[in-house]
């Protein structure tokens, strides 16, 4: 029998040499375009961070990190999951999309007003009074975030990944150039918020123009029907997710001060932010495909298991190697005076790798609309992080905070594996075996990298980098030669139907 046009790559079982479906090619192409845009953004962000870290003091980045955290919460509530909601729509009808558009502008206006009026309160709550003014200015981001999420989500839903990637690269490039100029002329926290504001404005303008046939105009929000209800449920879940994700950061800011929190922010640029870009590239392409599994988990059991194995096989080894290398790269990127960032960056890199795997499964659960699973997970995470905050205050070590992030990501993943296995969405036995092998490989890679870095600490940094590059190249060459025996490669090859070696 023929396959329906709307079936996806995620519907396929792993049949070796089976041709890749047209929808599957769209998903793969979308992921590649997304990652290309994210990769360019990472490179630009490294350059942006290298310059701004030399012009703005650590205290300035502490206030900047607080303002982003505050605006992140309000924006999550304001966005209301509109991008995800439109991604789940089976049919794209103008009244429904324009109803979501109206709903988004109402949410954004309310969020912006809240930030303008309560900036000082939020800054005091986080223990950083200098963050009040940046929070108020970032109300611009809160105002337009829902409409931006809707427009970009619509582009992903219609498969316009290439166009969205070009928009992303253009917006990020222009915003970072403007941001660098602002920080050079005016080296304060307020200058740091120029870049995210410009990026959001450009993205909204270009994405809205690209989808003008659907989003140009307004309609009564009720025309969006079930999408509004999903959006509301996701908004509540997002609030819990935000609390669970930022509880430790909140405690860290109070326990160690604005300067240390600024060091955390800089360390994230080299560690967790690149993994977040990888995570976004993957999820943006795959998220709409999860709608095929809202009724049954029968087809998902093997496919979701394979997806998690593939993601873990890529991100976890990279994070293990990065944890050993990044501490010696901090002075090169940021200059002197960022010793605390060098201390934090390795553990944050491990957290970044683990979180990608955890968030992929969490996104699948979210797309299913299983909000009871989402809420139970977030409540567990809030409890874990509350205990972590106590540990942060009791310990003088700044590493406790990042370690709690790793523990929280692992707990979330294990709990959702249990839930999905019970419902028939995952093969826990197969997943456990594959995870064990990946963890063993990561341990060997991480320990070897750490040994090379620390036992050659008296050598010139470029010689040490040369040794590390040689080691990584050797591992990559061995993996390529032995690829036919590597299970994640077999999975990848089976879904692509590759006949070549």
Task: Give structural notes.
By secondary structure, this protein is mainly alpha-helical. Helices cover 80% and strands 0% of the residues. It is built from 19 helices and no strands. Helix 3 crosses helix 11 (226-270). The longest helix is centred in the middle third of the chain and has 45 residues, at 226-270. It is globular. The two termini are 30 Å apart. Mean pLDDT is 80; it is low at 1-24.
Please tally the β strands and state the result: 0
The quaternary organization reads as: single chain
The major sheet is characterized as: none
Instruction: Name the beta content range.
Output: under 5%
Enumerate how many helices there are, as a single number: 19
Distance between the termini: 30 Å
From the alpha-carbon coordinates, what is the Rg to the nearest angstrom? Answer: 22 Å
Task: Tell me the overall shape.
Answer: globular
- In helices, the fraction of residues equals over 70%
Descriptive terms for the model:
19 helices; 501 residues; mainly alpha
State the gist of this model.
The chain has 501 residues and is mainly α.
Layout: helices, strands, pairs:
Blueprint lengths: L21 H34 L2 H22 L2 H7 L5 H32 L6 H6 L1 H19 L3 H25 L3 H4 L1 H17 L1 H4 L10 H45 L1 H15 L13 H35 L4 H30 L2 H24 L5 H23 L5 H27 L6 H21 L5 H10 L5
Helix pairs in contact: 1-7, 1-12, 2-4, 2-6, 2-11, 3-6, 3-11, 4-6, 6-9, 7-9, 11-14, 11-15, 11-16, 12-14, 13-14, 13-17, 13-19, 14-16, 15-16
